[in-house]
Amino acid sequence: MMTKNKSLQLLIILSAAISLLGELPATESSNYNHDYSDALTKCLLFFEGQRSGYLPAEQRMRWRGHSGLGDGWTVGADLTGGYYDAGDNVKFGFPMAFTTTMLAWSVIEFGRYMPPPEMENALVAIKWATDYLLKTVSQPNRIFVQSKSKSDSKAWGNQ
């Protein structure tokens, strides 16, 4: 099973590689047949698969359903949304903020090379995270965080 840090590192490396390799000029002697557009699509689908909350009708991962709809109710806050981390049922703020920052940065730097549908998917992915992150600081003098508990490790998805 991949650890959270390894999963995050893999996602960051893959996102950076896609962004950077898209900048390399093609040469006649190039024997590579990599489909970077397909890789980008799959990266963004990964984000969609990790969504928590009320999923939009246009969700491409049709097998996914709404989840985490009660997040925050015990403290009187709406903490639905955001992304799960590494197959767990936890939303860690720092990794989510970092990954979202890297995705946003890659859109700023390389968005002009993205097909319009994938640009839209990337912007939706960024907004999904930032909407949640803003909820975690929406009350005066309070910051909401979530940490992993033993019960999370025993959840159905982690058996």
TrEMBL record:
Residue ranges constituting the Glycoside hydrolase family domain according to the UniProt record: 36-158
Protein name as annotated: cellulase
InterPro entries (UniProt xref): 6-hairpin_glycosidase_sf (IPR008928), 6hp_glycosidase-like_sf (IPR012341), Glyco_hydro_9 (IPR001701)
Residue ranges of coiled coil: none
GO function terms (MF aspect): cellulase activity
Gene Ontology biological process terms in this record: cellulose catabolic process
Annotated keywords: Carbohydrate metabolism, Cellulose degradation, Glycosidase, Hydrolase, Polysaccharide degradation, Signal
Keyword field contains Hydrolase: yes
A Pfam family per the record: Glyco_hydro_9
Superkingdom of the source species: Eukaryota
The species this protein was found in: Cuscuta campestris
EC number per UniProt: 3.2.1.4
UniProt keyword Signal present: yes
Record-stated family: Belongs to the glycosyl hydrolase 9 (cellulase E) family.
Signal sequence region: 1-22
Catalytic activity: Endohydrolysis of (1->4)-beta-D-glucosidic linkages in cellulose, lichenin and cereal beta-D-glucans
